[in-house]
Write a structure and sequence with these properties.
Layout lengths: L3 H11 L7 E5 L11 E6 L2 E6 L6 H12 L6 E6 L7 E6 L6 E4 L2 E4 L14 H14 L7 E5 L5 H9 L3 E6 L2 H13 L7 E5 L15 E6 L4 E2 L3 E2 H11 L4 E11 L6 H11 L3 E6 L16 E7 L4
Helix pairs in contact: 1-2, 3-4, 6-7
Amino acid sequence: MNWKALLEQVEKKLAEGSTDSRRLFHGRGRCYEGLEQVCVDSFFPAMLVTLFEPHEGEGELCQQLWAMAEPAGYTGVAVQRRYLQGAPVEWEAGKPVPAPIARRGELKFPLTFARQNVGFFLDIEPGRRWLEEQVQARLGSDEPLKMLNLFAFTCAFSVVARAAGELEVVNIDVNRGVLNRGRENHLSNNLPLKGIKFLQLDALREFNRFDRRGPFQLVVVDPPTRQKGRFDVGENYEKLLQLLPTCLAPGADLLMVLNSPRHSEEHFRAVIEKADSRYRVIERLPQSPDFPDRDPDAALKMLHVRFGEDT
């Protein structure tokens, strides 16, 4: 197996010296022939290699990565083999990092390498930066700032928003376990929990159990592509967007996310516009440069949408 393109990308990014978590190599964007099923992430001091299919020379790859990682201060290289049942993780070089974390500036997010989703998504970083800017721009108003975080997962958006300024946040997720991790993410970053809610609810089917907590000036909608028996972006996204206006403030800003390679940006915009004429797409946020993709329509789509006012 020829790993040259991968190793060159990793070496280049390691030379930049940042300890913030990032993708060092993104094969899934199909920009590197033969490496489409390989990704390498930096969760300093751990390096994580994800293999979606078996590759000849996997051990050789890890040793070559370790030769670059060790001088840069890393302590171990782990491999997650998604092609095996349970997506097991093994430490292939160096020493295991007992408590890996994602780093974002001063913020830290504990990870769980033993699970398929480690607990922090690197590709949506442009959305987190967008949210920081929105919070900071709205501070100082006489009106309390309220944010709704749908499909909150481990509540990274809530942590970033609370670190950016004082506001109220309602985090919604159907999984109690990830919400508990979200609460811990706030506490581990010394962020006060006053005004931060963690509600175990189905965002679509139990909408009437949280809509009265608004009106919200900021909203993040970041659903899974398909959550068996609960949510499918092709069938349910429009239905959710039809409900949302009842809890939105005039002029609310929303980050609407679609992580489905089967649905184009044009399709996504059409779904939003059809759901309610008061939605206006302001812009598509730029992709993270760490996640190049041969087809922009297949990549993560993050749209800034404004509701009501000035539409």
